[in-house]
Amino acid sequence: KVTWLTEDAFPNRPPQPIRTETTLWVANNASVELGYRHGGVEIIVDRDTFRSGQKAPVMLVANSNDRYVLFTVEADELISYQVVHLTGTVKLVELALSDAHVPNVFLSAAMVADKQIHQDTKQVIVPPTKHFLTVDVKPDRPQYQPREDGTLLVTTRDHEDKPVAAEVAVGLVDESVYYIQSDYAGDPRKFYFGTKRQQRTQMQSTFNQKSYTKLVEWEEDGVKMVLEQSDALARDEQKKRQWGFDGESDKSGLKELRKAGDSLDRMELEQAAAGFGGANGNRMRGMALAAAPPMAMAPMSAPMGAAMPAAKFAAADARRELRDEKAKGEKQALGLEGADEPNVVVRTDFRSTILWLPDVKTGADGTARVPVKYPDSLTGWKATARAVGTGAQFGIASSTTRTKQPLIVR
Asked: For the chain, which domains are there?
């Protein structure tokens, strides 16, 4: 067991100690005792995800030594089984994983001890990595200006990180579209390999049909019989008596429910026959709606321009002419009078989808280049590439870029 202590780093607050711990298991094929006990049988797996071709270390733990455990690997059917003898309380088993264990399997252990059967199950994920492609789509620059040309570099590699030829569907869409609509086409890997298998195999034993008894001697004399499952039966009987589901209590409970239902029905019928009578009815009949008087319209105010004197107009024109003359003099002093001003370009191309190529092919080196002509929109762009290989291999990738326009001040 490993324990460590640290402190958080939240601002404006004194450091608070944080204590956490975890358990580590160190064992090999010769380990028989680790000082750990379990009530029955337990499966401890190194991790929950492995790759096909690896060996998964599985440790079996029993409640005492010299036990026999039935260790099975199951899914839709029984894949493998073996009987493991535990000379001590632990035993390390190395399970060789293959394509038969893809995409997941269930490890089960069953042990009979002290006239009881003990079971444990753990699920192990074995992803189909051989059917996955590593796809990358990258722009040659992180930022462009409107109407500039760019290039998308698409690369495809297999599960061993080797270049592979594939067919890729490439799209380039305004990034803001995804805020209001998610992508209809999802991850092809999840579509074809996203379903896990269920544990359809079941284990049956005589413990499912009958209970076993154990004879225990009194200290003085006589013999008593102890049912191994008496505790469970007693709990069931206690629940039945608590909720009144047996015997006379069940009948009395049903009678009370019927009486309550009959009284509710009579109340509803009496209210309907009275036509909402009583205090509530009088209140409803005494209500009246008073029409509110229409709001008076405020008189329209007179135009402000009519009240402005003609002298103010003349003063405004004089100030405007003075500013123009001053600006003209500054241009002449700087030698800018008569210089050519830049042409004004009106942006009109505001497409949300600027690229859709469903048949881009990468070569033997696993690369392909896609030319792009960016529109006038000043926004972010999201490029998505979905690839399919020759051996039922699939992959997906995405990247972003942006178009910006410098601010012009005149």
From this structure: 1-127 (2.60.40.1930), 130-194+349-403 (2.20.130.20)
